[in-house]
């Protein structure tokens, strides 16, 4: 006791000492606020200080970018890289401005809490409050300055981006419309340069081949092997998935339109992609293994590009025109016309490819510009002549539809277009605008082939997605056999396949067209990045990538919730022999909780601010108060039913006019299945507010009754003994409480009894009662006990008629009465019979 007193005194003294020290420290702070603030100044920068430093760095980067743009004004590739850096800098500046916004809101709210400084004549406020207001006001001013600098910097970056775009547009226009004088001397100079370049290239190629064979033999074979393996993997996988659409079945006499479209599109796309993978991986591995020299690498790249171009056009010609298989042809051309157009297109592709290849060789060898100009001139002239020659051919299918018959001329408009384009190429090239002529000729071949292939792909997707069209395809038959899908599911799957074909055609074709029209890979990356990260609709920015991420996360959490439901139900609760109703309630609760969590995660990942839903919630509250009362009432009632569980799935309930077995309990309504297999959807609010009878609330024990009536000449005790004896033979009848028979009444024509017994499961009641009635009938027949029919006694009274009444009447009236009286005499007993029958 004494020790405890000493400890208490010691603690009290220490507390007083600490309190005194605290008050002394507070006084010191009040006396020397400037010194204390300096001593306890934070070592880390505030958000506004960090933002100011980042803005200064961004200004330095902007100055460097502006200098680089001026130095590379005539280099398109360098301008592309600088545009990407400028766009990245713009996003960084916007991020700086966004990051300081929360701190600005905090300062604004705190200043609102502190209030305005006291006016003249009002009591002064504490110095600490004044210092805090001044500090916050200074930081707010700094944030405003940083935000202003960020806005100005963003405007400057945007201006720089616009300048880069304008420079690139001007470079592209200058390249296309640059004029070169075409003369005999130019042609002579080009011929001399060509002979000299050919010798130099042959010597360089020979020395490189000799070097590779001596010192780079193994890397060469390794690169070839790896590239071939990559292409074979893609091709084999494609054949496994799309094998039926990569080759034509010669046994098919009249292929369907959808079959022709599908084979044309997929055979062109898959095989071209396989060759592209082979060529790209070959160049990548050869360059990675140091097999290619700097002067040879561009030439090999151009060679691979030429091979890919010629192969693609060849596949396109074979797919669309089918020169040797008219039944697979997609256009109405004769055989001769299909072959001639196919040869012309292939020849133009070869001319364009060789022009590109020779230009790359000239750049690698450092040949003069005049040689490049003459090569492009010759290519443009050849393509123009081919177009003019094609315009005079007769490729159209004969009127009788025979592909072997001589064809008809082009439609007049098409022939004129071909001649105008061909003559335009020739005139443009001879006028000295060789770059423009070469560009137009290239776009005619490559862009035309890409657009036509895209169009065929879109037609294939449209044909496959048409109702009841996908079921006739090979893939649909495979799905039907493999997954046992019905016609409706196959038709819905066909719609998805059609949309997928649309996506493939557009995602492959549009980037290729953009690349052909002067865009760079960096431009496409920038466009894709902006498309998926920031799509502006007015003042709202939407991130497609964020939305897709949110959808994927929602789907993942939802699937995880479903798996958790199945796992808990099948492994935990089933092994623990948990009641079926409890299992259903747990599964339903976990399902709704998981969907809620998945929705929150998905919305947050999509970049949608959940606080913005406050306005929506306030608006919905008005609707809930007026128009959504029933929905909210049913929702809350459903939650009460799941938690309180006045009945559960599998219970036999009676609610109003609905009686049956509970099949499902959701937060809005409960499904009750009647014994006629009719599903009745009952709103939960009615089950909460109304009377509900539950036959199986605590258990499934229930009483069954069988009424029995016997004749008056039967022995009541014998009847009761027989009923109890027959009941005792049924195993499903409970012995406790034991069965018993009630002698109910003396009926009008029978003695009425009722057999009462209990069953452990009310679901067995109908079968038990049915079998027991059969046994009772058999036993009563054997014992001679009669089950009487309903009996009714009817007494008919007929009144006598005096015989002299007819003779005393008038002779004339007597005749009428003689006719009427028998009818009345016969109707009267009938009326008495009806009346007494009604009484009885």
UniProtKB/TrEMBL annotation:
Residues 705-787 form the Mechanosensitive ion channel MscS C-terminal domain. Keywords: Cell membrane, Membrane, Signal, Transmembrane, Transmembrane helix. It comes from the Bacteria. It is found in: Cell membrane. Its main location: membrane. InterPro entries: LSM_dom_sf, MS_channel_C, MscS-like_channel, MscS_beta-dom_sf, MscS_channel_2nd, MscS_channel_C_sf, MscS_channel_TM-2. Residues 795-822 have a biased composition (Basic and acidic residues). The chain crosses the membrane at residues 220-242, 263-286, 298-321, 341-361, 373-392, 413-434, 440-459, 493-517, 537-560, 590-608, 614-643. Residues 793-840 are annotated as: Disordered. Residues 630-697 form the Mechanosensitive ion channel MscS domain. Residues 1-19 form the signal peptide. The keyword Membrane applies. It is a multi-pass membrane protein. Belongs to the MscS (TC 1.A.23) family. This is Mechanosensitive ion channel family protein. It comes from Rhizobium lentis. The lineage of its organism: Bacteria, Pseudomonadati, Pseudomonadota, Alphaproteobacteria, Hyphomicrobiales.
């Amino acid at each position: 006791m004494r020790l405890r007193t000493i400890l208490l005194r010691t603690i009290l003294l220490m507390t007083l000492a600490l309190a005194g020290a605290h008050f002394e420290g507070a006084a010191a702070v009040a006396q020397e606020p400037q010194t204390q603030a300096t001593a306890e100044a934070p070592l880390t920068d505030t958000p506004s200080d960090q933002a100011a430093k980042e803005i200064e760095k961004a200004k330095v980067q902007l100055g460097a970018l502006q200098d680089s743009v001026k130095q590379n004004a005539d280099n398109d590739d360098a301008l592309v890289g600088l545009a990407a850096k400028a766009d990245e800098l713009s996003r960084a500046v916007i991020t700086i401005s966004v990051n300081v916004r929360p701190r600005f809101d905090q300062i604004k709210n705190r200043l609102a809490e502190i209030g305005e400084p006291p006016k003249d004549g009002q009591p002064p406020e504490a110095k600490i409050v004044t210092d805090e207001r001044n500090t916050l006001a200074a930081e707010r001013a700094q944030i405003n300055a940083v935000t202003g600098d960020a806005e100005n910097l963003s405007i400057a970056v945007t201006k720089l981006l616009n300048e880069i775009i304008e420079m690139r547009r001007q470079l592209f226009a200058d390249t296309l419309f640059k004029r070169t004088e075409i003369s005999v001397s130019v042609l002579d100079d080009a011929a001399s340069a060509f002979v000299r370049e050919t010798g130099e290239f042959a010597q360089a190629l020979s020395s490189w081949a000799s070097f590779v064979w001596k010192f780079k033999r193994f890397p060469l074979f390794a690169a070839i092997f790896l590239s071939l393996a990559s292409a074979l993997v893609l091709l084999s996988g494609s054949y496994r998935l799309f094998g039926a659409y990569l080759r034509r079945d010669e046994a098919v006499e009249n292929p369907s339109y959808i079959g022709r479209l599908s084979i044309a599109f997929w055979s062109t796309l898959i095989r071209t992609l396989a060759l592209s993978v082979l060529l790209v991986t070959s160049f990548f591995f050869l360059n990675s293994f140091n097999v290619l020299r700097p002067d040879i690498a561009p030439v090999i790249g151009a060679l691979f590009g030429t091979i890919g171009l010629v192969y693609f056009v060849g596949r396109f010609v074979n797919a669309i025109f089918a020169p040797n298989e008219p039944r697979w042809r997609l256009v109405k051309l004769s055989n001769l016309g299909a072959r001639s157009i196919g040869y012309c297109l292939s020849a133009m592709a070869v001319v364009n490819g060789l022009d590109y290849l020779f230009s790359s060789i000239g750049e690698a060898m450092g040949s003069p510009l005049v040689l490049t100009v003459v090569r492009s001139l010759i290519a443009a002239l050849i393509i123009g002549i081919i177009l003019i020659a094609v315009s005079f051919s007769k490729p159209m299918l004969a009127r009788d539809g025979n592909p072997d018959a001589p064809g008809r001329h082009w439609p007049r408009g098409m022939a004129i277009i071909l001649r105008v384009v061909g003559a335009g190429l020739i005139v443009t090239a001879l006028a000295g605008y060789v770059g423009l002529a070469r560009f137009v000729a290239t776009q005619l071949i490559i862009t035309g082939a890409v657009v036509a292939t895209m169009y065929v792909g879109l037609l294939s997707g449209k044909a496959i997605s048409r109702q009841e069209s996908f079921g006739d395809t090979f893939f649909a038959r495979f799905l039907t056999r493999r997954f046992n899908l019905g016609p409706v599911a196959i038709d819905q799957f066909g719609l998805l396949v059609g949309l997928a074909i649309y996506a493939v055609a557009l995602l492959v074709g549009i980037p290729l067209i953009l690349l052909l029209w002067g865009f760079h890979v960096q431009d496409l990356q920038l466009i894709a990045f902006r498309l998926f990260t920031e799509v502006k609709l007015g003042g709202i920015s939407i991130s497609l990538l964020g939305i897709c991420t949110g959808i994927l996360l929602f789907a993942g959490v939802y699937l995880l919730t479903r798996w958790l439901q199945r796992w808990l139900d099948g492994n935990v609760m089933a092994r623990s022999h948990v009641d079926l109703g409890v299992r259903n309630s747990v599964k339903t609760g976990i399902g709704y909780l998981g969907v809620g969590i998945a929705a929150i995660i998905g919305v947050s990942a999509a970049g949608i601010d959940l606080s913005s839903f406050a306005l929506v919630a306030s608006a919905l509250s008005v609707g809930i108060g007026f128009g959504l009362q029933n929905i909210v009432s049913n929702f809350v009632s459903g939650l009460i039913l799941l938690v309180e569980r006045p009945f559960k799935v599998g219970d036999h309930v009676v609610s109003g006019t609905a009686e049956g077995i509970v099949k499902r309990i959701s937060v809005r309504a409960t499904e009750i299945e009647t014994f006629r297999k009719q599903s009745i959807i009952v709103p939960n609010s009615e089950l909460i507010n109304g009377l509900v009878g539950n036959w199986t609330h605590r258990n499934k024990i229930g009483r069954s009754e069988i009424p029995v009536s016997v004749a008056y000449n039967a022995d009541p005790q014998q009847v009761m003994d027989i009923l109890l004896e027959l009941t005792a033979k049924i195993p499903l009848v409970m012995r406790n409480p034991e069965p018993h028979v009630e002698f109910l009444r003396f009926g009008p024509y029978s003695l009425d009894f009722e057999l009462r017994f209990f069953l452990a499961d009310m679901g067995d009641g109908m079968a038990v009662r049915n079998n027991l009635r059969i046994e009772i009938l058999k036993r009563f027949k054997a014992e001679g006990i009669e089950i009487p029919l309903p009996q009714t006694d009817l007494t008919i009274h007929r009144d006598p008629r005096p015989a002299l009444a007819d003779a005393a009447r008038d002779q004339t009236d007597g005749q009428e009465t003689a006719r009427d009286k028998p009818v009345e005499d016969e109707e009267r007993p009938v009326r008495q019979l009806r009346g007494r029958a009604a009484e009885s």
